[in-house]
Amino acid sequence: MAHTLTLYHHIRSSASYRVRIALALKGLDYRSHLIDLSRHDQLAPGFAEKNPARLVPVLDDDGTLITQSLAIIEYLDETHPQAPLLPRTNAADRAWVRQIALSIGCEIHPLQNLGVLNQLRDGLGLDEAQRKDWSAHWIARGFDALEQRLSASSRRGAFCFGDQPTVADIFLVPQIVNARRFDVDMKPYPILREIDDRCMALPAFVDTHPSRFPARP
Ligand SMILES: N[C@@H](CCC(=O)N[C@@H](CS)C(=O)NCC(=O)O)C(=O)O
């Protein structure tokens, strides 16, 4: 089958992992183009044509370029309606799911993005331990609110919303990978851990996990 989708992504990027999960949940085949952030591939001249912000992921659907993991995932959800990633029930349910994704994508993840951590090191002179504390602080603050929101909601089921994974879970699981990387204590978040465990029983989350990709020589 001819590939029409190409994903520009980095193995350890949580925003990239989100899109890999969405593609897997929908059973979509795609061409994988790795952008190694540790080798600054995102700064190579050609990549700015894909994304002037020089961030991954980028999806190329036969020449249509899309950046921002949530925009990519919603695009995939609209163009490939099987295995819906947003509730088809009503607007309030969809807003509820999106608010979880956005609380992670806008309020947690950007604060411990590679560029921010590099600026804390190069611009403000923070050492590795200080940068780790910084990341852990913002993740814990975001997870406190998320745990509370999920514990209080009747919309929660086996997953963040109901009994099928949605965009909310797609954002949550990669953020938990980051949390563990920054040694965030996950004990205060039993609901988040339970949902993570359920997701990690699904091939779409396991097969696309950063640890599944061979290290580049
Ligand atoms: N809001 C964006 C975030 C994209 C993003 O921050 N990507 C990171 C990797 S997770 C990146 O490319 N960082 C490269 C850098 O900071 O130089 C999305 O959801 O796609």
TrEMBL record:
SUPFAM superfamilies: GST C-terminal domain-like (SSF47616), Thioredoxin-like (SSF52833)
Keywords: Isomerase
NCBIfam families in UniProt: maiA
PROSITE patterns for the chain: GST_CTER, GST_NTER
Superkingdom, natural source: Bacteria
Annotated protein name in UniProt: Maleylacetoacetate isomerase
GO MF entries: glutathione transferase activity; maleylacetoacetate isomerase activity
Domain GST N-terminal: 3-84
Every GST C-terminal domain range: 90-217
This protein's GO CC annotations: cytoplasm
Species of the source: Hydrocarboniphaga effusa AP103
